[in-house]
Amino acid sequence: MNLRRTNTLLLLLVLTLGTLAWWSTREQPAAPPQLLTELQPEQINSIVLSNRSGAAIRLRLSAGRWQMTEPYVVEANEVLIQRLLQITTSPVRHQFPIEPSRLDEFGLAPAKASLRLNQLDLFIGETDPINHDRYLAIGAQLFLIKDLFPHLLLAPATSYVSPNVLPSGSELELIWTSEWQLERTLERSGTWQLTPESSDISMDQLIEQVDEWKSAQAVGVTVAPDTAPEDWIEIRLRDSRTPLSFGILRQRDTNLLIREDLHLAYQLPQLLDLLALPRKRSQDH
Predict the structure, then answer these.
(1) What is the pTM of this model?
(2) Per residue in 30-53, pLDDT tens?
(3) Do 45 and 145 have their domain in common?
(4) Are residues 187 and 86 in the same domain?
(5) How many CB atoms lie within 10 A of CB 272?
């Protein structure tokens, strides 16, 4: 009886040890990846991006919208900025300290670009030749992250200009072209006066014309060419003393609306439609 009891106890002990060994060798849940910074994108209200594409780009969050303050004073490209800010939470592949004498090995002397987010400075180097991850330095630490941001970090300032031709939320008072003028009437809110008058264009069509200008977006923004514009258009906004003056330049591949004060060209395939009155557009189509 004692022998049987002993054997049973030994069997239980073996089973217990086996169970413990099995649990100890089970795959443990992976630890959350280390992130590049402790900053969350929504905590950032100031950006300075410097690269070899031109002047430094300064962006500031104001009243919930991003504005560019240098090299252009203009509304900024919200979509592009939100993509750029995702760099703060990039998973780190590798990290190690770096000596100043070795910066050149990683394309950091000088850096290909620098990025200041609030008060945090990031310096962007070359890519790892084996895994093609991006070298990035913060202080005396070198990080490797997946190379998802080169088109954002190396972009020129024009890429960060909003594609909106007019500032978001703008209320128009006047659209002046060399062929017609459309002005908000003071007597009745929400109505527009067309000059020269046309009895076959309804008020709804005029309002639609204004709305199309308010929502017009470029497919790209570039530095304006030196070519003299063929024509001009002026737009006056409510609560603004200075009207916006745009040059018109028709090209073979696209049409440009050139903002004179900023020397920026907005690529607008729909420009000819915006310049045509509703009646003329219906006849053309």
Answers:
(1) 0.84
(2) 667 899 999 999 999 999 999 999
(3) yes
(4) no
(5) 13
